[in-house]
Design brief:
mainly alpha, globular, single chain
Length: about 280
């Protein structure tokens, strides 16, 4: 999750938020036909707005009330009474059969660390978090991309988790500075940290074992992602192919750097990212 501006009031109308032009997400979305791209931008704007509430929406009771308003707005949207801030979702929902429960799952995921910093969740809770904040977005996305239902849902499951675990590994030090620790409790207990603080975990001499285990989970999800993509219509997988390939570059850079402090923030080289964009964006 990212710290951004305080959200607008519940009834405020605004243009859909667009991803940064330098991001792999923006590049991936540019590969889509106009109607699908606009649908993805509407979903992105919703996710960004809810993320803003969870990360930077004021006191806990204010954030709770605002997330409840978002839940009510989604319910009203599906009941045919869309509030101004969700009207851009009306057409995508009708055109691509986007499901109410996936929007609600995104809100529930943001709520998981909106009121209390997540510190060493157990593996089931971590998986639920990944499902809500990443795979639920994937389930919305694959319907917009036009994937067959079964393949699409499986792709959302694995690619969402692959990307989210990569994010967690990339951001471990930044998250610790904010009082958050997304590494699983069971893995931390195995290295002698049954009740860790984020700072203690980051300084522990065996933290690399935990990170390596999470990286192995991410790698397994990337393998499943590519296996599903190989069975899917190529025209419908341009965006997920580019996202998976770009995020895999981050994981590769993390594995190359290692986990010993000081851990410099990694970023794949421009040529590597350009190669991914050309490979998956042209065909």
């Amino acid at each position: 999750m990212s710290a951004t501006a305080t959200p607008l009031p519940a009834d405020a109308a605004e243009a859909p938020a667009l991803p940064a032009k330098s991001s792999s997400f923006y590049t991936a979305m540019r590969l889509l036909p106009k109607d699908r791209r606009e649908a993805m931008y509407a979903v992105y704007a919703f996710c960004r707005a809810v993320d803003d509430v969870a990360d930077d929406g004021g006191a806990a009771e204010v954030r709770a009330a605002e997330l409840d308003r978002w839940r009510a707005d989604i319910d009203d949207l599906y009941a045919g009474r869309p509030a101004a801030r969700v009207r851009d979702l009306v057409v995508p929902i009708a055109r691509y059969a986007l499901r109410r429960e996936d929007f609600q799952a995104v809100i529930d995921g943001m709520a998981m660390d909106a009121f209390e910093d997540i510190v060493a969740p157990d593996e089931d809770t971590l998986d639920l978090y990944c499902d809500r904040v990443a795979s639920a977005v994937g389930r919305l996305s694959v319907r917009i991309f036009g994937l067959p239902e079964d393949l699409g849902i499986r792709l959302a499951h694995h690619e969402g988790r692959a990307l989210q675990l990569t994010n967690i590994l990339r951001d471990i030090d930044e998250d610790a500075e904010r009082g958050r620790l997304y590494l699983p409790r069971e893995r931390l207990a195995a290295i002698g940290l049954p009740t860790p603080t984020p700072q203690a975990a980051m300084a522990h001499p065996r933290i690399g074992e935990v990170c390596a285990a999470v990286a192995a989970q991410a790698e397994a999800h990337y393998r499943e992602t590519w296996a599903i993509i190989a069975k899917s219509p190529r025209a419908a997988t341009k965006a997920p192919r580019l996202m998976a390939a770009a995020y895999r570059l981050y994981l590769d850079e993390l594995l190359k750097r290692g986990w010993s402090p000081p851990r410099a923030r990694v970023k794949p080289g421009k040529l590597a990212l350009l190669s991914v964009a050309l490979r998956h964006g042209i065909v």
